[in-house]
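agent: user wants the full assembly modeled, not chains individually. Plan: 1) parse entity lines 2) check alphabet per entity 3) run joint structure prediction 4) return tokens. Steps 1-2 passed, two entities, 780 residues total. Proceeding.
--- entities ---
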Amino acid sequence: MKLFSDLGDWLDERTGHKKLLAHALDEPIRGGARWAYVFGSALLGSFLVQAVTGIALMTSYAPSDKTAWASVHYITFTQSGGWLLRGLHHFGAQAMVIVLVAHLAQVALFGAYKKPREVNWWLGLALFAITLGFALTGYLLPWDQKGYWATRVATNIAGTVPVVGDATQKLLQGGAEYGSLTLTRFYAIHVALLPALLVALVGAHVALFRKHGVTPSAKTDTSRVDAFFPKQLLKDVVAVLAVVAVVFVMALREHGAPLDAPADPSSDYPARPEWYFLALFQLLKYFHGPLEIVGTIVLPTVIGAYLFALPLLDRKPGTALRGRKGSLLPLALIGAGAVGLTLQAQHQDANDAGFQKERVKADERASIANRIAKEGVPPEGPLAMMKRDPELRGPELFDKHCAGCHILGAHGADKDRTAPVLDGWGTEAWVLQMLHEPDGDTRFGRSVYKGEMPSVDTPPAGAPPTFKPMAPEDKSAIAAFLARTGDAAKLARGKELVTTRCTTCHLFEGKGDDSDQGLAPELSGWASVPWIRAQIANPSAKTNYREHALDPDRKGHMPRFDAEIRNEDMDLLAAWVHAEARRLKAR
Amino acid sequence: MTTSDPPPPPESAAPSTPSPASAGEPRPARRTVTLAVVVGSCAIAAATAIPAAAFVAAPIGSKGGGGRWVRTLRVDQLVDGEPKRVAIVDDRRDAWTIERGVELGSVWVVKHGAKVSAFSSVCPHLGCSVNLAPEAGGGFACPCHTSAFDADGKRKSGPSPRDLDALATRIEDGFVAVEFRRFRIGVPEKVET
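--- prediction returned ---
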């Protein structure tokens, strides 16, 4: 102990730290220590949590549109402890907003904004704005769908400000559109500009607070004075501990923070802001057309102006609440309005079936993106990663190019269908049904090839009495051969039948009995991935159908897609159709 | 220790007891020094702040790049009266990056007989992406703030200050080409960014 005290003296002689510490700790609290005074310290405590977790996150985060999402994914799913750190930062931000509102309410109720504390009230309002700025800029940084679309709305709101709106929006976005510069700007604002401003203003805020002291409520006996240490500091520590505990429990319970699918400017997404902005979001729905600016700019500005003017409006001496009801009424209305609008926004979304459907779709996409990214994200970014994933891209391409005529599973509408149903296509069951009833509704029934293929077991109308239905075991052998399933003997028999019985019309390995007149497609490798790939690129390239099978007079046949689908997309689509058709049962 | 403190220098004398040097008319030399300090400080501040501010403010002058004609889908892929969302695929220059053949955004394309029209999918209210609204009797709806438009892109209800932004189209070798543009959001006039 002696050593410590000597060391303390030695340092004090050179720094004077003891006097500073005593000044900080012996602050007189007029009227005694109170729980009502803990909110400022609780805010400072939660800001420190944000600073520590934020700096730690910076060591793994890479702000560019190709790397931001991938690095946040890495933090969340790969780096050990990353999920917890992100969770603490995510819920810590929300805690800060809540404590901030509580702090503001306490100061307003106690009349602590009144003369001579006006400047400190204004500093507090500026700190409020800075905190919301942190929330807004931080939301974008993961560059996921949620942050991207919500922030686009926010910057578009900035753009509706008369005269300076366009310039402000471009200044924030780093240009006319969202891009890499948007992210670097938001990042710089979030990790450098706002922290610097916050630290400077918090310094001034605390200094002014020390100059004027606490504002006890009117009824308090001010003859009693506590020192900041230990009575008030203990309460403050308990408050900070409570906030940190809630943040910790939330982070554990939710296992970190959510990560939506990577930002995709060509997608549709039901954008919603973070919950504490929902009131402002809801407000935007009520002001239509030319009045739009009332919701985006006018009302928020009026609220800001009222808060700024509060200490100037309320100038009667004394802090008794009774004399200040008129001045505080707008604040109560703002608070009630915010709660009401927030509930209204949540209620509307909960009852909006369209929104819920969109939300489910978005969540599915997010979970697929998060799963495939665990294999690593290519340098071209997460969108390229998703474009190369058959499971994601396959259905998209099918919907876009194929579902107008075909059906595969839930893709395509039966009323518009003019081509075969592809469920189970390429399997034995499908071939058997095709041999039996080629003009069935799910086969050629609605296509231009209706009537071109005869049934092997049902005589056509007016057929000669010599018609002999194909034996079931022969049909089975053909189906097995075409589906490439079954034992070698069966496959050999199937091949023999195909090359003798089917090549009247069909090609096999490029040859047919009458290769100039038949319309039917190549059967070697039929329904394999290369066959599908060739069919998508150009059905009449002789590798599948022959040229004249797709004559212009045969209107409604499958078109060639090699001019409009890129090669890698055709590979992907063929692979997906092959797998998906075989996964489903033939209809 | 305190006893060994030297007497305070005249510069730091309290204002209540002005030293004879600063009483009345300041001496020209002192005024010059004050001026020099102020000007010097301002010069230092300006030398860093002006280039930094000009650098940060550079994007204010940037333009949206104007329209560009992009081929989308084949006309025969459209069903009469049924709008289809198509991605606009083209090269994208983003600050220091050039990307070939990426999706820049999407547009709604709809065919009525021989006429093919296209709408920007960006909601003119605050820039969300508009969807089809089969539940609301056709047309388009924004999933964010309840703006609704009819099948011709005309504003039906909700906060949007203008109709959906129509884009020029033309048919090239059986393909629908769309002039892809972006417009300012949240204003009644349709002006390019």
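agent: reporting back. The first helix of chain B runs from residue 28 to 57. Residues 2-59 of chain B form one domain.
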